[in-house]
Amino acid sequence: MRTLPYFDATAVHSALDATAAVEAIRGALRAGFAPSSDIPRSSVPLRQGEFLLMPSDAGRSTGIKVLTVAPGNPSRGLPRIQGLYLLADAETLTPSALLDGAALTIVRTPAVSFAPIIDPIRHRQDPLDVVVFGAGPQAVAHFETLRALLAGARELGEVTTVVRDPDRLPAGTRASAAASGEVRAALSGAGLVICATTARTPLFDSSTLRDDAIVIAVGSHEPDARELDSALMARAQVVVEDPATALREAGDVVLAVAEGALDAASLHAMGDVVGGVPLPAKRPIVVKTTGMSWEDLVIAEAVVGHGEAAGEDESGRSGAAS
């Protein structure tokens, strides 16, 4: 019986660096993939959380990510999100690889966030001051992706990490409590704000932001949860993976539209922006993502392809399923 290659978390991260992941997402959109054709995620309630099922069928492969979400796990010292990705041949549906689902999510989410905003982030000459809300895996992954994208192109300026409880961070980490004057000052000078939290209400007063600030929001795919206030959504050019999906799942968008602050017709699809639709230079830009199944498929294909090219059979994979 054939043994499927398994890419564990280490193999996923080593097979595909952050810049390559961003380019994989941009490449899929430039090649004409329409996120509107993607299969919506589904959720199955469980006693201690939920299953998230994310299938996609595009290009040479098809695949499905199965995640478990257990809100009580952090108190047990376990990850909140765990799971697997099954990659298969699109023609025969023969399984070809298994990947660590949580690691795949950590790689693909910042790749999607930065895919439409590489140019405005890289092409200014002044140091980029950054505010990061959150200190979990996605906050860290977004910051590391940013560092990789800026390398050799633009200097990184002041970085402020905002958390509810700074005492929980490792020693030596510079952080501020959310309501502090330091955070308000940092926001007023920031060129980029990254929101990667589990918050259900706005994290900050957006009136402090510069007119050319870029804001990334990745915290939720729930229509009643938001990290950004409606005032920002009204000021900004909002970029989403797919307008229909955002209007169904992105609370920052759904609630702003319901409050009359945001015109649904004004949303920019990420594929259009990557394809060349310009973004404003003197208006805030918001990139609001919810995570879509096609993104996992694109990154899984890239991980497996890069891993095979690098000889991962010997160094980074192990047989885990048959």
TrEMBL record:
It comes from Lysobacter korlensis. This is Ornithine cyclodeaminase family protein. SUPFAM superfamilies: NAD(P)-binding Rossmann-fold domains. Pfam families: OCD_Mu_crystall. Transmembrane segments: none annotated.
